[in-house]
Amino acid sequence: MSNILKAFINIVNSSQTNIANVKNGNNRANNMGEGLETYIKDIFANTTHEAAEQNKLEELSRIYSYQGNKNNPPDLILRNSDAIEIKKLESKNSALALNSSYPKAKLYANSPMITTACRDCEEWSTKDMLYAIGHVPKDTEQLKSLWLIYGDCFCADKEIYERIKNTISSGINTIPTVEFTPTNEFAKIKKVDPLGITDLRIRGMWHIDNPNKTFNYVCTYDDTRDFQLICLMKKEKYDSLPSEDKESIENIENDSVEVQDVRIKNPNNPVQLIDAKLLIFKV
Question: Around Cβ 76, how many Cβ atoms within 10 Å?
């Protein structure tokens, strides 16, 4: 079973950050977004340098239980482990565009926003949500930075977002003489015009600040480096990971790696601080 610590070690050992060199099967990735997704898949599966396509497919099938698409989160699910959402940014400080999916501290199997295939990929009810946020500057093929950060470090509980969504939906649905149909979006109005041939979809476009901005009090982006990897998780998550992986991290002999105990703001109550683990690799 793979995890964030194995991915961290694989990146440190591979030193592969040019996503144009990433292969999707026998072909080069068609675009930088696809290249980043393939890169993320490879670092968790340790298949970055696997040349034999069949061997790679077998290993990916062993490591992952689900791969999603652009319209249905998450992008990946590690078998018996975390859900992963991948975001590519052209600017180091750009906000994350989550579109119709609000920020997620956790992923729930009963969420109406996921597919049946995701719900049935294995036996599960709740998964930790891991955001993989890659900074690939415009017109380049170089991954300049990668955040691997758990949703419960910076996203509030789902009730916070659902209250806003439900309040807006309820208000819209009180509009008189309008025909509504069931939807997972805010609302969908049928037959807006006299001919009854025009529909209106009302959907949310969620954004959340970049971790470079949110966590600048514990980690500073270094513009002088060619690449930097930042992993952030609650201490309780770190403690739950396999002992051999924690030992590998803590005993790693690389001057470019830092392992820090930090305290971060509670996303549900910022005056409270919670214990967290910060892993940094800069080259």
Answer: 22
